[in-house]
C-alpha cells in the first residue's frame, strides 16, 4: 500500500512539474508578444502608471479577458491587435490547453505603481494563484510622447 501511494505521489509530482516547465516556456512567448505589441500600439505616451491583469486562455485559439485594470487605457483585453498577434504566434506553438494570468505593470518614466495599487493586485493574485498559473509581471516602461523638434539651419 505504501509503495502504491509513494509511486502515485511521484507520478503526480512529475506531471505537475512537467506542466509547470511547459508553462514557463509559454510564458516567455507571451511576454515577448505583450512587450512588442503594447509598446508599438501607441502606449508610449501613456501619462501615468498603472496595472492590469489579463487572463489568457488557449483552447483552439487564444482568448483574453480582463481580471483587473487600474485604468481603462490599460485594459488590453479588448485590443484586437494584441489578440491577433497572440493568435499568430501562439496558436501553433502552445500545445494543448493553457491558462495563465498576466500581470502588466506600466511604469511612466521612473515612476512605478503606488503601494496602494500593488496591494490591491497582490490580494487579487493570491486568490487567483490557487487555481491558475500566474506569470512573472511584464513591466512596460512608457515615456512622454515625443514632439517634433524644429531644426535650424
- CA(first)-CA(last) distance: 88 Å
From N to C, what is the helix and strand string?
HEEHEHEE
Q: What is the rounded Rg?
A: 19 Å
Please tally the helical runs, counting DSSP H or I stretches of 4 or more residues.
Answer: 3
Query: In this structure, how is the largest beta sheet organized?
Result: 5 strands, mixed
Tell me the number of strands. Answer: 5
Helical residue percent? 40-55%
Q: Indicate the structural class.
A: alpha/beta
Strand content: 15-25%
Instruction: Show unreliable segments.
Output: 5-20
Shape: globular
Instruction: Provide mean pLDDT, rounded.
Output: 75
Write the layout of secondary structure elements.
Layout: H1 2-39, E1 50-58, E2 62-69, H2 80-90, E3 98-108, H3 115-128, E4 133-134, E5 138-142
Parallel strand pairs: 3-4, 3-5
Antiparallel strand pairs: 1-2, 1-3
Helix pairs in contact: 1-2
